[in-house]
Amino acid sequence: MASDPMAGRPGGGRGPVSSRGGLTVLAVIVSLISLFPVLWMVSSSFKTRTTVTDGNPLPRDFTLGNFVYVFTEVPFARYLWNSFFTSAVITVVALFFHSMAAYALARLRFPGRDRLFGAIFATLLVTPPVVLIPLFMVARQLHLLDSYAGLIVPAVFNAFGIFLLRQFYLQLPRELEEAAVVDGCGHWRVYWNIVLPMSRPILSALAIFFFLANWNAFVWPLVATSDQDLTVVQLGIASFQTQYGSNWNYILAAATVAALPMLLLFFAFQRQIVESVKTSGLK
């Protein structure tokens, strides 16, 4: 009778399987811990004022009145539109300029290219509060305060997008670009007809990052705007906490409305986000 080749091994060869199962259990626990605040927020947004702090995970007195109040008593729809408009414009414009800059830094050869990229990359080490006052002074001199331009223009330029796109472009095969140049294409046509279509996965992921970051923007809109018609959704939620500090049902309803589009957007494009990290050289 043939002997079992796994019999002499410690644990019967089930070590890797057991470790994988332990990692799976750990991932599930961490995921539940991460999701619990979101689920609690959504559940509490359907509770009444008297039961919102009762500690029960599910609402006993289910109501939609909190959402009705949010959209009827305050201009919350206007806040959502302001955040959507500014985030969408910033995302489109930033991706256009970032992709061009990253392509130039990755493919074109010109004096000082590496130093220029180093200077751009170094701006990632500067925290936003450091440049907040200089940025405000520049925006005031250019008459950008209390305007959509003041919310959009300062947020367009970001070194993170240029860095990530440059890493992606460095991995693209040069043969396609060289063949296009042989056929008579210039740098613009190579960028527009070849490089840009191949960049859809990384551009999709960056679009999510940019849109999410600007949707959640708080400090710069607080500094740059005082007009109620330009209030973004995060400032609107902050004003809820000031005016309705004891009415957590209204605050959580507003927070749920603000978070729901981002959650849907993430789940719809999570594959592009994972693929962009895999293909950008960030292991």
Automatic annotation (TrEMBL):
Transmembrane spans: 21-42, 79-104, 116-136, 148-165, 202-223, 248-269
ABC transmembrane type-1 domain mapped to chain residues: 80-269
Domain of life assignment: Bacteria
Alphabetical UniProt keywords: Cell membrane, Membrane, Transmembrane, Transmembrane helix, Transport
Subcellular location, record wording: Cell membrane
UniProt main location, coarse: membrane
Pfam family, one: BPD_transp_1
Membrane topology annotation: Multi-pass membrane protein
Database matches in PROSITE patterns: ABC_TM1
InterPro entries found in the cross-reference section: MetI-like, MetI-like_sf
Family note: Belongs to the binding-protein-dependent transport system permease family.
Name this protein carries in UniProt: Carbohydrate ABC transporter permease
Organism: Streptomyces tubbatahanensis
